[in-house]
Amino acid sequence: MRISISKRRTRIVGAVAAGILAAVGGIVAVSGAQAGTSATAVTSTTTIPGTEEIWAPPPAAAAPALTAAQAWAIFASGAGLSTAIGSDTTVQLGALTEAVGPYCGTGCDMWPTVNGISYRALNELAYGYYWSTCPNGTSLPKTACENWLFLDANTGKLITGALHRSYGPGKSSY
User: Fold this and answer.
1) Which DSSP string do the residues of the chain spell out, in sequence order?
2) pTM metric for this prediction
């Protein structure tokens, strides 16, 4: 039985999202709530280590429809997680770009395509939630400890995420 590329991608993305939610659930459940968590604006463009996700400053006139806490609460409540942002979590507001790859026909129609490249996110206004899972003073590489989730700043929907990445080079975001 053949499964279309778009159905296969949907199933893969769904399975990966479930894995992210399970991992985040464990971390959030043991984290204390941080009242009044506010996001700081990204000040310089960077690529999240171990991924192809580009995290850039938000537009000067950015006015997200949701606060960082509201976006997290929407995301978390839909996943059955704590709606409080963990006290060990840093939150930033920025513009996220992540290429999927060359346009692949109708299987890529769900993503914006520019100049023949399809994007999961293209300069999308987002909140980036960052936390580390390694103890202070660890000798592990940064990618083995850092975790990122990116939520749409206007809807609270999960865009993508990058959990600790200790399995070598290459694309490792979700």
Assistant:
1) ----HHHHHHHHHHHHHHHHHHHHHHHHHHSPB-TT--PEEP-S-EEPTTS--EEEPPPTT---SS-HHHHHHHHHHHHT--SSPBTT-EEEEEEEEEEEEE--GGGGTTS-EETTEEEEEEEEEEEEEEEE-SPTT--S-GGGTEEEEEEETTT--EEEEE----S-SS----
2) 0.72
